[in-house]
Amino acid sequence: MNCSRSAADRGASTRNRPELYERRRQELWRLFADGVLRPAVHGEFALEDAAAAHEVITARRNLGTVVLRP
Asked: Which of 39, 44, 42, 38 is nearest to 64 (CA)?
């Protein structure tokens, strides 16, 4: 990860700075593509088990993404 960004860049909001948002977006996708960032997957459910997946989410038992598979 590139740590050479200025303190202003690291703490700045991207709300009114589209160029900063774009730089950060590109960096995140690069890190994902390089395998540095990986999504946290709590579990995978068959589509038929969507009700059970929904229960996990509504009960706040998931510690990552809940994936439905067809």
From this structure: 42
H-helix or E-strand spanning residue 26 = helix 18-33
Cα–Cα distance for residue pair 22/14, rounded to 1 Å: 9
**What does the chain come to in residues?**
70
Question: Which residue carries 């994936």 as its tokens?
Answer: 67
Q: What are 28-53's pLDDT values in tens digits? A: 999 999 999 999 999 999 999 999 99
> Would you list the domain boundaries of the chain?
1-38, 39-70
CA angle 35, 36, 42 (to 5 degrees): 80
Phi, psi at 34, each rounded to 5°: -80, -5
Interatomic CA distance for residues 61 and 11, integer angstroms: 31
